Amino acid sequence: MQETIATLDHIRRSVPQIREELGVDPIPVGAIRDPAIYELEKERIFRKVWLKVATAWELPDPGDYKVKELPVADTSILIVRAKDGRIRAYHNVCTHRGNKVVPSKGFESFGRARANVVTCRFHGWVFGTDGALKSVPMEDAFGHLDKACLGLREIACDEWEGFVFVNFDPEPAQSLRDYLGDFATLFGGYPYRESTTAFRYSTVLKCNWKVALYAFSEGYHVPTIHAGSLPGFRGIEHSDFKLIGPHASSTIYGAGMDTAPSTGIFAGVLHGSDSHAPRPDLLPADINPKRRGDFQFELPNIFPNLLIHLASGCGYPGLSYFTHQFWPLDHGTTLWEGINYFRPAANAAEYAAQVHVNALHRNAWLEDTATMEDTFTGIMSGAIDDMQLMDQEFLIRHAALTLNSYLAGDKQ
Amino acid sequence: MTSTDPTLLPAAFADLAPLAARWARPTENERNAVRHAATAGEFAAFHDALLPRLDALLTYLRDCPPRPEDPAQRNALMLACAYAEAAPHHELYGGSSEVPFSFDARRFVADHGDEAL
Q1: A interface toward B at CB cutoff 8 Å?
Q2: Which of A171, A197, A229 is the last residue of a domain?
Q3: Domain that holds residue B52
Q4: Does a structural domain hold residue B74?
Q5: Mean pLDDT across chain A
Q6: Domain boundary at A153, A171, A189, which?
Q7: How confident is the model over A373-392, as a mean pLDDT?
Q8: Residue A139, domain member (yes or no)
């Protein structure tokens, strides 16, 4: 097997190197337990770093918009593809008296700005998708109104590989590309935008956001919590550790499991299709660089609250990649979002097979989420002061240490 | 033919009409509700009847668009999707309508949950 030329050797870590660099001591749970820490997280992390809020393919045409409620930033945002084709983000706040310009349902909703304008339903102020205040009913009655200064309040917004990020800092300390750093290289080049069939699930969990993030950030739990979903499971190898500034990554290789009869048939449909078959050749060169056949997916943690699991059809049949995101609603409440991405089905058989794979994975997520509220209750009880973390839980250790450095003001 | 009358199937699968009536629904949320109310015996009967026909059903669906407009094709897809989601309950979960040791599935919100096939 030909090895690709690795270009990111400086981010790779052996287990001894991880232990040396991050330590092996228990990690205090105070950052999870203390409501005051959450207030600091809002100020020093969620208002300072780049946060993924959309994908470009959710907003394919000029005028398409998404409204996302972000209690962690105490705001509602409007993400819109403007007339010039660029995606921009604004506070969804009318500059007249503060009403929400585009009303929304739930935590996110979608729409289309007809004629590239949005109109506040309160008094009819009209804003362009470029943010400019276009017209004001009875404008003369204001005496003086400087419309040029009353556009929608813009939020820094940029794209990486079609993932749309915002930064609430009026003057972000870093560009998105600089913030992502080597992560952008490690995960860059995969055709994410081709996988437009999305099955998105969400739920509100009664736990601190880091409890949910950490639960999805390691492979140690797989043989136990997923025993029901993984019959005849023969173990995993969680390795290829990488440290990337505030981000980190690792690889899940699988030793296989028994395939249920129905799964074997559905998988055959997807594996027999050029679009959905395992495509290790599409993986970026530094992910599974030896192109091992037992590669399942790359498991990264993009600080502070995003996981993009890149599989390229190698793990769950036909599954291109999946993402998790963890949005704090308050100290003890979290909106979890999990999205399975597939390439579009070419026929009804492929679609039914995707529904099967999606159901298997959704059910595994039901097993994952079962732990989170109990874990938070346990931590809040005061019975333990620390987490004990093993090597496969290094993403948690790294995220906790990164969080501490941001809270201490060492970053940004 | 409407989404509430899922029993018209392609001729080769006409004998599966009673199962279609019991399980086939156009949306994920409706299929979830059917599954949540099913017994181990019903999961077993569905599995035992469908698994031997799954290859043939998927071969038929390979010639159908992902969102068929033809009522019989659409019903065949609804039946396949219902089985796609029900099979793990028999094969992996011991006939339980819940995923064992799991979060309450009713608290999961699917964005696409009300989108009809």
Answers
A1: 198-204, 225, 228-229, 231, 260-263, 265-266, 269, 344-353, 355-356, 359-360, 362-363, 365-370
A2: A171
A3: 12-107
A4: yes
A5: 95
A6: A171
A7: 97
A8: yes
Smallest CA–CA separation between A24 and chain B, in Å?
31
Cβ <8 Å between B54 and A262: yes
In the predicted structure, residue A177 carries a pLDDT above the cut 50: yes
pLDDT-based confidence at residue A306 (cuts at 50, 70, 90): very high
In a domain, residue B113? The reply is no
Q: Which two tokens stand for residue A44?
A: 């020093």
* Assigned domain for B5 exists: no
- Identity of the residue numbered A207: C
In a domain? residue B39: yes
Q: How far is B100 from chain A (nearest CA, A)?
A: 7
Instruction: Measure the CA–CA gap between A34 and A385, rounded to whole angstroms.
Output: 12
Q: What is the count of structural domains for chain A?
A: 2
Q: What is the CATH number of the domain that holds A85?
A: 2.102.10.10
Judge whether B62 is closer than 8 Å to chain A, CB to CB: yes
pLDDT of residue A6: 53
Quote the pLDDT of residue B5.
65
Asked whether the predicted pLDDT for residue A25 surpasses 90, the reply is yes
Query: What is the rounded distance in angstroms from the CA atom of residue A214 to the CA atom of residue A211?
Result: 5
Note the pLDDT of residue A134: 97
Residue A302 has pLDDT above 70, yes or no: yes
* pLDDT above 80 for A120: yes
Question: A222 and A104 in one domain?
Answer: no
| Nearest C-alpha in A relative to B81 | A352
For residue B83, the chain A residues in CB contact (below 8 A) are 262
Counting the structural domains of chain B, the total is 1
A-to-B residue pairs, Cβ atoms closer than 8 angstroms: 131
Cα Rg, chain B, nearest whole Å: 14
Dihedral sign for Cα atoms in the order A322, A328, A329, A333: positive
A59 vs A196: CA distance, rounded Å: 11
Which residue ranges of chain B lie beneath pLDDT 50? 1-4
Residue A109, min C-alpha distance to chain B (Å) = 10
| CA–CA gap between residue A344 and residue A195 (Å, rounded) | 7
Checking if the pLDDT of A3 tops 50, the result is: no
What is the residue range of A72's domain?
Answer: 51-171
Per-residue pLDDT band at A83 (split at 50, 70, 90): very high
Whether A189 and A159 share a structural domain: no
pLDDT score recorded for residue A363: 95
What number is the average pLDDT over the span A121-145? 97
- A202, two tokens: 């969400």
Q: What is A21-84 written as a DSSP string? A: HH-SS-EESHHHH-HHHHHHHIIIIITTS-EEEEEGGGS-STTEEEEEEEGGGTEEEEEEE-TT
pLDDT at A382: 97
- Answer whether A348 sits within 8 Å of B102, measured CB to CB: no
